[in-house]
């Protein structure tokens, strides 16, 4: 391998296992059939994926639109051309005679395409991780000087956002002159910011290009004004103070919640301790046999008379049931099969007389002597 290619590997900080891939990546289509166009196609995808991953990790607060805008600016031809110049890729190019004579080794498009072809060759030689490591190393110095909020935005957009941020009316663009033939015109545009008393001009091959040139000059003038920088600093200070107050309030709220949780925990422990103490206290359990004995003794005492009067009262209080008390003599009611109306026809007096005669004899316990004739 030529010594010059070893120098390029040192600048890339990557050593190729397949030297033919490196040679093909440096070969322009004007040189031979085995050129770098296919490697350029592959390297373009590897570059976009790698830069997207780098931005995703580096700028966690950027939304999808801003990430896409920054990536587009980093992988555009001008950015790749600047990196290729830093590596000195033009010293290793393999060009045809026509490109050499026309200065193709200095052309931005050729250098940018060659750098993408190198990324594709690294991917085939060492895998995605190897290519990603080289791309990340090359773009790290670039990202150190990049403002993701403004990168990729044109001068008119930046001027408009700056003025809106300070509550100033939008600028006015006026075409003041047009020069040249119809196919090669030059436009002159004046940009005016009435409130700031700014009036600058710009020129370009189209009206839009002239407006961009004028907006760029106006933006430079606006950013030099200290009166606009001071409110911005004050606004930043107020925002910082507000964030600090919000953080302090959040900490106080957390401390209050922690104290409440501690108090609740202590109360729970105290309740559990009380319940444990009550549960562990000894309980006097009366033997079953002794309890039954006591119950039977109480029943017995309640049945025994307390004195003689209670005994007499007990004997006379409930007279013995005689045959005459609420007893219906046998044969008084013949059968329940008879109708109720026939049963009720018998006089109640006769039933009572019969029922009171026979039991009287039984109660006396002896027969009465016959009456004297």
UniProtKB/TrEMBL annotation:
Domain RNase III per the UniProt entry, residue ranges: 5-127
Keyword field: Cytoplasm, Endonuclease, Hydrolase, Magnesium, Metal-binding, mRNA processing, Nuclease, RNA-binding, rRNA processing, rRNA-binding, tRNA processing
Gene Ontology terms, MF aspect: double-stranded RNA binding; identical protein binding; metal ion binding; ribonuclease III activity; rRNA binding
Domain DRBM intervals: 154-224
Primary subcellular site in the record, as a coarse category: cytoplasm
UniProt feature, compositional bias: Low complexity: 258-282
Chain intervals for the UniProt region annotation (Disordered): 225-373
CDD domains registered for this protein in UniProt: DSRM_RNAse_III_family, RIBOc
Entry-linked PROSITE patterns: DS_RBD, RNASE_3_1, RNASE_3_2
Active-site residues per Swiss-Prot or TrEMBL entry: 44, 116
Database matches in Pfam families: dsrm, Ribonucleas_3_3
Enzyme Commission numbers on file: 3.1.26.3
Top-level taxonomic group: Bacteria
A single cellular component GO annotation: cytoplasm
Cofactor (UniProt): Mg(2+)
Enzyme category, top tier: hydrolase
GO biological process: mRNA processing; regulation of gene expression; rRNA processing; tRNA processing
Cellular location(s): Cytoplasm
Skewed-composition ranges (Basic and acidic residues): 286-310, 338-365
InterPro entries, A to Z: dsRBD_dom, RNase_III, RNase_III_dom, RNase_III_sf
Catalytic activity: Endonucleolytic cleavage to 5'-phosphomonoester
Gene3D superfamilies: 3.30.160.20, Ribonuclease III domain (1.10.1520.10)
Summary of the function given for this chain in its UniProt record: Digests double-stranded RNA. Involved in the processing of primary rRNA transcript to yield the immediate precursors to the large and small rRNAs (23S and 16S). Processes some mRNAs, and tRNAs when they are encoded in the rRNA operon. Processes pre-crRNA and tracrRNA of type II CRISPR loci if present in the organism.
Subunit and interaction comment: Homodimer.
Protein family per UniProt: Belongs to the ribonuclease III family.
Designated name of the protein: Ribonuclease 3
Lineage: Bacteria, Pseudomonadati, Pseudomonadota, Betaproteobacteria, Burkholderiales
Gene: rnc
């Amino acid at each position: 391998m030529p010594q010059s290619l070893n120098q390029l590997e040192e600048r890339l900080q990557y050593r190729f296992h397949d030297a033919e891939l490196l040679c093909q990546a440096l070969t322009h289509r004007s040189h031979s059939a085995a050129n770098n166009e296919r490697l350029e196609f592959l390297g373009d995808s590897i570059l976009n994926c790698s830069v997207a991953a780098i931005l995703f990790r580096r700028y966690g607060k950027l939304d999808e639109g801003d990430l896409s805008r920054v990536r587009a600016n980093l992988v555009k031809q001008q950015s790749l051309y600047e990196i290729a110049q830093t590596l000195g890729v033009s010293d290793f190019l393999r060009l045809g005679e026509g490109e050499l004579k026309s200065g193709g080794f200095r052309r931005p498009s050729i250098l940018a395409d060659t750098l993408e072809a190198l990324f594709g060759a690294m991917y085939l030689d060492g895998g995605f991780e190897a290519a990603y490591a080289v791309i990340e190393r090359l773009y790290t110095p670039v990202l150190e000087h990049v403002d993701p909020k403004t990168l990729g935005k044109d001068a008119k957009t930046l001027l408009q956002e700056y003025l809106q941020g300070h509550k100033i009316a939008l600028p006015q663009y006026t075409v003041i002159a047009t020069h040249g033939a119809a196919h090669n015109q030059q436009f002159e545009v004046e940009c005016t910011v009435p409130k700031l008393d700014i009036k600058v001009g710009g020129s370009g091959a189209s009206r839009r290009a002239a407006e961009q040139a004028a907006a760029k000059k106006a933006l430079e003038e606006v950013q030099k004004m200290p009166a606009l920088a001071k409110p911005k600093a004050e606004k930043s200070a107020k925002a910082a103070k507000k964030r600090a107050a919000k953080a302090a309030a959040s900490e106080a709220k957390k401390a209050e919640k922690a104290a409440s949780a501690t108090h609740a925990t202590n109360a729970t422990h105290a309740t559990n301790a009380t319940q444990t103490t009550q549960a562990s206290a000894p309980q006097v359990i009366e033997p079953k046999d002794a309890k039954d004995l006591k119950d039977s003794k109480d029943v017995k005492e309640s049945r025994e008379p307390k004195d003689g009067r209670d005994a007499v009262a007990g004997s006379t209080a409930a007279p013995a049931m005689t045959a005459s008390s609420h007893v219906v003599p046998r044969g008084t009611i013949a059968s329940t099969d008879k109708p109720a109306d026939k049963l009720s026809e018998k006089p109640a007096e006769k039933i009572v007389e019969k029922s009171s005669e026979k039991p009287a004899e039984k109660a006396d316990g002896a027969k009465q002597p016959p009456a004297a004739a």
